[in-house]
Amino acid sequence: MKKSIIFTAFLILHSISHAQLVMVWSDEFESTTLDNAKWNFEIGGNGWGNNEAQYYTNSATNFSISGGEVTITAREEQFGTNAYTSSKISSKGLFDLKFGKIEARIKCPMGKGIWPAFWMLGANIDQVSWPACGEIDVMEHINNDTKINGTAHWDNVGHVYMGGISTLDATQYHIYAVEWTATSIKWFADGNLYYQLNINNGVNGTNEFQLPFYLILNLAVGGDWPGYPDATTVFPAEMKIDYVRVYKDQLEASIAENELANITVSPNPTTGIVSIQNTAPTKLTNYNVFGLDGKLKQSEKLEVNQNEIDLSKLENGVYFLKLTNEFNQEITQKIIIQ
Q1: 203 lies in the same domain as 65
Q2: Contact, 221 vs 234, CB < 8 A?
Q3: Catalytic pick from 140, 208, 257, 259?
Q4: Domain-located, residue 76
Q5: Contact at 8 Å (CB) between 255 and 327?
Q6: Are 176 and 283 within one domain?
Q7: Would residue 135 show up in a list of annotated catalytic residues for this protein?
Q8: Is residue 7 part of a domain?
Q9: Domain boundary residue among 224, 249, 274?
């Protein structure tokens, strides 16, 4: 079931629409805990601007990672004045982007009042509020529909939104993506384009989409759009996420992002000593090794021109080697010690 990837220090080149894309950020959810360098839990039950009925928690009963996938679980249970609990994570304050390809592989639950989503908000939301910050909904699904929605929201002397629909069975895994440039936003389901929005030169007040956005994954219950659960709604309801990946055009990616694609780590599996091959001028500054439990097992600064790391003190097993460069950017490689 898990994704088919050949890791070259985690960054992978793709050819899409005649553009060369480089992966600049990703979470493959290979640990058992949320990577708090990439995601925040958003906690609360104030309706979230849509009169939603759930309280978002960081509880293991609402959010878990196992077998390389996230499970967000909505439960019918009282939490204060809220009749339901669920979970929501975002990259706010940790990672944002302006332009690129953003995709995730997701499986959705069905049910009246059930509302899973993968979306983005403008990073300046705290300064300008919504909808002036802009919103890009990569994927939303509601109720028992056999379709998913991709939508953009913005402010043009009031709230404006436009989007499209793709018909599919959302209870199965699908890859949902947007390709966002200075001139357009395109929505895809399993690689099939189903909607396109012109944002060239801020046409129709779309200047919001020329600024950075951050990522959000959540499973809402109830609200203005889907309505609320009824006797037919089955709880617990589970949304599953296999991965989230962000790419940029190689010509538009920063120098540091492109240089990271020139780093490889070998051998893998290893008996303890791994070699770092860095053909770019970017300097690596330190490394951290994490276990499958998400706990830090080994950490060290890298000396100038150091090209070997000794992991022989670690027990045999699967680990994650995170390398950091002088721009504080990271790449992660799954390492097997045997």
Answers
A1: yes
A2: no
A3: 140
A4: yes
A5: no
A6: no
A7: yes
A8: no
A9: 249
CA 190 to chain CA mean position, Å: 17
| Domain span including residue 210 | 13-249
What are the angstrom distances between the C-alpha of 86 and each of 17, 42, 157, 259? Answer: 38, 11, 34, 39
- Length of the chain (residues): 338
Fill in the DSSP letter of residue 315.
Answer: P
Q: From CA 252, how far away is CA 99, in angstroms rounded? A: 9
Q: 186 in helix, strand or coil?
A: strand
Helix/strand/coil for 313: coil
User: Do 282 and 197 reside in the same domain of the chain?
Assistant: no
Q: What is the pLDDT along the chain (338 residues), one digit of tens a residue?
A: 433 332 223 333 333 444 577 788 899 999 899 998 899 999 999 999 999 999 999 999 999 999 999 999 999 999 999 999 999 999 999 989 999 999 999 999 999 999 999 999 999 999 999 999 999 999 999 999 999 999 999 999 999 999 999 999 999 999 999 999 999 999 999 999 999 999 999 999 999 999 999 999 999 999 999 999 999 999 999 999 999 999 987 666 665 566 666 778 889 899 989 998 877 666 788 888 988 777 889 999 888 778 899 999 999 988 888 888 776 677 777 788 99
Joined tokens for residue 210: 């020329």
Token duo for residue 143: 């109720």
State the Cα angle at 195 between 191 and 201, rounded to 5°. 115
Strand 82-86 relative to strand 54-56: parallel, antiparallel, unpaired?
parallel
CB neighbourhood size of 172 (10 A): 9
Rounded Cα gap, residues 16 and 335, in angstroms: 29
Question: Does 28 participate in catalysis according to the annotation?
Answer: no
> SS3 for 81?
coil
Candidates 135, 179, 208, 257; catalytic one = 135
